[in-house]
Amino acid sequence: MKITALGTGDAFSADRYSSCLLVEEGDTRLLIDCPHPIRKILKESTKGRVDVGDIDALILTHLHADHASGVEGFAWFCRFALHKKARICAHPGVLEHLWGQVQGSMSELLHVDDDNKPHHRSRLEADDVFDTVPLTSSMKIGVFDVESRLTIHHIPTTALFFRGQRDTFGYSADTAFDPELIAWLARGDVVAHETNFGAHTPYAKLRDLPAELRKKMRLIHWPDGFDIDHDGAIAVLHDGDTIELQAT
């Protein structure tokens, strides 16, 4: 299993892209969250190895803009360049509001004739551009067995656990400190956990976790400047960092 931190910043970062991940194994590539500009983010972190057309599914943890602002561009690229629907997996509470968030810019298409003159307009619905798959507590996506559970956040937000052929990976997504969630994630060979201010997880809480768990944990969604005086008790992810798991 390979995990690439495409972006590691929070909603206010001036230095890094918003948090999103690429999880790969075999022929399966899953994009976790989709900030704008997603094609540029993919190109820079994978050095051009992966583009939108290589993604088997986009898993949205929640609809805050720093995690979902690139959905429109992702879907339009799928429609106009790849001639297919954008496959999006998310908790039913996320999918319920997805179209409402983007329909203002995606619900109407202008069609032009061969001379590039306006011909007519058509109305679009969610099913015209999205192939949506509701996340369940446990399901198969490509080669991965994917588990999910809700976190403690402002809006419906989903933590994720990936089980590949040999390796496992847990991702907290955005959440307040939650010992039950951390215990659920701790099964992973690697755990990416957010840390930030407000309704997020304070670093001090994570720093107090057992050393064995901290050793396999990586920090994401951290505020600008956090890494300057960081004590190193838990490793910090930066944009473009890749973790390759090789289970023994």
Shape category? globular
CATH level-two architecture: 4-Layer Sandwich
Q: How big is the Rg?
A: 18 Å
Beta-strand percent range: 25-35%
The unreliable regions are none
Overall mean pLDDT: 95
Give the CA-CA distance, first to last residue: 13 Å
β-strand number? 16
The main β sheet shows up as:
7 strands, mixed
Secondary-structure-derived class? alpha/beta
User: What is the CATH T-level topology?
Assistant: Metallo-beta-lactamase, Chain A
CATH superfamily: Ribonuclease Z/Hydroxyacylglutathione hydrolase-like
**Number of structural units classed as domains:** 1
Strand order of the largest sheet: 8-5-4-3-2-1-16
- H/E topology pattern: EEEHEHHEHEEHEEEEEHEHHEEE
Which range best describes the helical content: under 10%, 10-25%, 25-40%, 40-55%, 55-70% or over 70%? 10-25%
Count the DSSP helices: 8
Quickly name the level 1 CATH class.
Answer: Alpha Beta
3D architecture notes:
24% of the residues lie in helices and 31% in strands. With 248 residues, the protein is of the alpha/beta class. It has a single domain (2-244), classed as Metallo-beta-lactamase, Chain A, CATH 3.60.15. Strand 11 (158-163) and strand 12 (168-171) form a beta hairpin. It is globular. The mean pLDDT is 95.
Topology (SSEs and partners):
Blueprint: E1 2-7, E2 20-25, E3 28-32, H1 38-46, E4 57-60, H2 65-68, H3 71-80, E5 86-90, H4 92-106, E6 108-112, E7 118-123, H5 126-129, E8 130-134, E9 138-141, E10 144-150, E11 158-163, E12 168-171, H6 179-185, E13 190-194, H7 203-207, H8 211-215, E14 217-220, E15 235-236, E16 242-244
Parallel strand pairs: 3-4, 4-5, 5-8, 12-13, 13-14, 14-15
Antiparallel strand pairs: 1-2, 1-16, 2-3, 6-7, 9-10, 10-11, 11-12
